[in-house]
Design goal:
about 525 residues; FAD/NAD(P)-binding domain; single chain; alpha/beta; 7-stranded mixed sheet; 16 helices; Methane Monooxygenase Hydroxylase, Chain G, domain 1; Flavocytochrome C3, Chain A, domain 1; 4-stranded mixed sheet
């Protein structure tokens, strides 16, 4: 057994920022499914929203967040994040993040749903710049043990080891390169595993976004809330060679126009805010126009801003599109909506604490109440920093528990898998029917079809998990099907259309705003 003061599962912005804050005080293990550079945080293009301009205000940022979230947001959590925004940005600046500057200071851009320019950024590759800056510091810190190419199999909780206390004592972690399962004990554990975009066929997320933390927390007995709110980013590049390449929200924020193939704009007919409407509105409008006209994609045109402007503001998007034969300074960009962000997740308080003692959550895996029914653009990275700091502060202030001796992973009753193809087939089937039945526009009939298919898959995957040695792919598939089940169960319970959840059977808003909260009867043993 390896023992640490804190185990962090996930190496994106939430995980790395927590590790760096903890390192001066204790020994930290940081688990990364691939390498530290591979995370959804690193893929974020637009930036980080915070009130940094004298013309802006805390109240305006809060109001914009509540409007985008269709008033389902938790107001205390929203205020907590927004009020800590400037401090979070200052911490990143202190770490050395090279935010873009202009003549008046740091350049702030505006994105859909924001009433002011408040998105600080590093050109059009903010996530990559932040991730690179923190990764260098994490690798150099002797108090942080980095476990790359490791994936958590499951949390170790009291009920799983025959104890009455529902407390987390660490996790079983698979070394994907050797096949060895490690027992990692910790006084406290932080889930910073990101979202579940890979449950859908088309997504802007990296391959790591498989709902691991949400599924593990659910099995451990945590409440999970509002999983029906999956944000579909309106503008993913439509090209056979462009795997999950996002066209940033900031392109529309800086004047990009959405058009049909004949050059006609269509957003003004759907919403008075046109291209600057929140993501759910824009994604549904694109979906509507594509289905109505039988289109494979629509077009996002920013060529009217000129090549110099485009190269300055969107150098990475410009370069990537050029590689694929699209000169965005002279022609529009073909785009389609794609699954982008999981707004629901593991329920936690303002300290990042879950329902299980010693288990915290931060970032996209969490449901803090900030996003409500739809995340406001560029609030996600801000939430990562604010809540990871809150979790760290609570861990450092808490009394250390007595860590029991933890049993080793038991492989005595399993064998090597005889048909790995079963995993890839189930993975493909799950992602396709989730896209078809639980996508941007839903019906009760489609949800029931998905529910039936999920039940069949869960039985098959559980049998596979019980009889064969675990593998990276099997762990991810097991977590994805649990996450898919949670999404559908939440969607079935919401008898209205709000934010990201649009049902043809319940097209109106319900008179009462409520969260959908799922509870397990008892933690899995």
């Amino acid at each position: 057994m390896q023992k640490f003061d804190v185990l962090i599962i996930g190496s994106g912005l939430a995980g790395q920022s927590a590790a760096l804050r903890l390192a001066p005080h204790c020994r930290v293990a940081l688990v990364s499914k691939r390498t530290l550079e591979d995370s959804a945080s690193g893929w974020a293009q637009g930036g980080i929203a915070a009130v940094l301009d004298s013309q802006d205000s805390i109240e305006a940022h809060i109001h914009d967040t509540l409007v985008a979230g269709a008033w389902l947001n938790d107001e205390k959590a929203t205020r907590f994040v927004v009020e800590n925004g400037r401090r979070a940005i200052e911490w990143l600046i202190d770490q050395g993040v090279p935010f873009t500057k202009d003549a008046s200071g740091y350049h702030l851009t505006r994105e859909g749903g924001h009433s002011a320019r408040r998105v600080i950024h590093v050109a059009d590759a903010t996530g990559a710049a932040v991730q690179e800056t923190l990764t260098q510091k994490v690798r150099a810190n002797p108090n942080i043990t980095v476990l790359e190419h490791h994936i958590a199999v499951d949390l170790i909780t009291g009920p799983k080891i025959g104890r009455d206390e529902n407390r987390c004592y660490g996790a079983y972690v698979l070394n994907s390169q050797t096949g060895e399962v490690l027992t990692v004990g910790a006084d406290n554990t932080l889930l910073a595993t990101g979202g579940a975009g890979k449950v859908y066929l088309y997504t802007t997320n990296p391959d790591t976004s498989t709902g691991d933390g949400i599924a593990m927390a659910w099995r451990a007995g945590c409440r999970v809330s509002n999983m029906e709110f999956i944000q579909f980013h309106p503008t993913c590049l439509y090209h056979p060679q462009a795997k999950s390449f996002l066209i940033s929200e900031a392109v529309r924020g800086e004047g990009g126009l959405l058009k049909l193939p004949d050059g006609t704009r269509f957003m003004p007919e759907h919403d008075e805010r046109a291209e600057l409407a929140p993501r759910d509105v824009v994604a549904r409008a694109i979906d509507f126009e594509m289905k109505k006209r039988g289109l494979d994609c629509v077009h996002l045109d920013i060529s009217h801003k000129g090549e110099a402007f485009i190269r300055e503001h969107f150098p990475n998007i410009h370069a990537r599109c050029l590689e694929l034969g699209i000169d965005i300074a002279r022609e529009p960009i073909p785009v389609v909506p794609a699954a982008h962000y999981t707004c629901g997740g593991v329920v936690c308080d303002l300290k990042g604490q879950t329902d299980v003692a010693g288990l915290y959550v931060a970032g996209e895996a969490s449901c803090t109440g900030l996003h409500g029914a739809n995340r406001l653009a560029s609030n996600s990275l801000l939430e990562c920093i604010v809540f990871s700091e809150a979790a760290v502060n609570d861990m450092l202030a808490a009394k250390k528990p007595v860590l029991p001796t933890l049993p080793a992973w038991d492989e005595s009753r399993v064998t090597d898998a005889d048909e790995e193809v079963v995993i890839s087939h189930n993975w493909d089937e799950l992602r396709r029917f989730m896209w078809d039945y639980v996508g941007i526009v839903r019906t009760t009939k489609r949800l029931k079809r998905a529910q039936h298919r999920i039940a069949l898959l869960m039985r098959e995957i559980d049998e596979f998990y019980a009889n064969f040695r675990v593998s990276h792919d099997l762990i991810e598939l097991r977590n994805l099907v649990v996450t898919a089940d949670l999404i559908v169960r939440c969607a079935m319970r919401r008898k209205e259309s709000r934010g990201l959840h649009f049902s043809r059977d319940y097209p109106e808003l319900a008179p009462k705003v409520r969260n959908i909260v799922l509870r397990r009867r008892r933690p899995a043993r």
